[in-house]
Amino acid sequence: MTEIDPRHIDPRHSALVLVDLMERMVALPLAPYSGDEVAERAAELAKAFRAAGAPVVLVRAERPGVAEQPPGSGLLPGLAEPGDVEVVKRTVGAFHGTGLDARLRERDVRTLVLAGIATNLGVESTARAAADHGYALVFVEDAMSALTAEEHHASVTLDMPRLGTVRRAAELRLPG
Predict the structure, then answer these.
(1) Nearest to residue 15, comparing CAs of 129, 155, 137, 161?
(2) Locate the Isochorismatase-like domain: which residues (predicted)?
(3) Which tens digit of pLDDT belongs to each residue from 81-123?
(4) CA distance 39 to 76
(5) Do the domain assignments include residue 114?
(6) CATH of the domain at 51
(7) CA-CA distance, 72 to 163, in Å (whole number)?
(8) Is 22 left (phi over 0), alpha (psi -120 to 50) or beta?
(9) Staple partner for 118: which of 107, 146, 160, 167, CB 3.0–4.6 Å?
(10) What residues contact residue 124 under an 8 Å CB cut-off, 6+ apart?
(11) H runs (alpha helix) in the chain
């Protein structure tokens, strides 16, 4: 694991990865942060990354083998902007079968800053695969949430520190 100083995120080699910020996910009863709180912090992070010239990756899930996706399966309105990378996953994490690794490498990304829903599912699964691919990881604790506060707390205190650096959004700094 590479310890990243969140006060010095290098936008030339970093990307923000926002997992499952879809209407139906944000509407769930989440803890310790509401879906709206997560979405607001994620949008602020995306704005900062774009301003610094760093890629923003927006991940959303599609259920395999169904004719139509459930209502609210698109990204939150207004979240995506031209130039963002959109990834559609059909598994818990964002790497398997999506081409995400190649899309990050062609942009010379080495560090991923992760946020989204749910902390212990989509975000953590994506992080584990990212670690296996050799990326340095930063987790934005207050820009993610889970179905219970206990699940969120377990991920951010037990699992994620073994994979990367856990910080709050206010602690991240990008030049620009």
Answers:
(1) 137
(2) 14-170
(3) 999 999 999 999 999 999 999 999 999 999 999 999 999 999 9
(4) 8
(5) yes
(6) 3.40.50.850
(7) 31
(8) beta
(9) 146
(10) 155, 159, 160
(11) 23-26, 35-51, 100-105, 124-132, 149-154, 160-163
The per-type count for the chain, helices as H runs and strands as E runs, is 6, 6
Q: What span, in angstroms and rounded, lies between the C-alpha atoms of 46 and 21?
A: 12
Q: Give 115-157 pLDDT, tens digit per residue.
A: 999 999 999 999 999 999 999 999 999 999 999 999 999 999 9
Q: Is residue 71 part of a domain?
A: no
Q: Provide the domain count of the chain.
A: 1
Encoded amino acid at 105, one letter: R
Task: Tell me, yes or no, whether 74 lies in a domain.
Answer: no
- Reading the block at residue 47, the tokens are 């704005």
Question: Would residue 138 count as lying in a domain?
Answer: yes
What pLDDT does residue 4 have? 65
Strand partners, 58: 18, 86
53-60 average pLDDT score:
97
Structural domain of residue 85, as residue ranges?
6-63+79-171
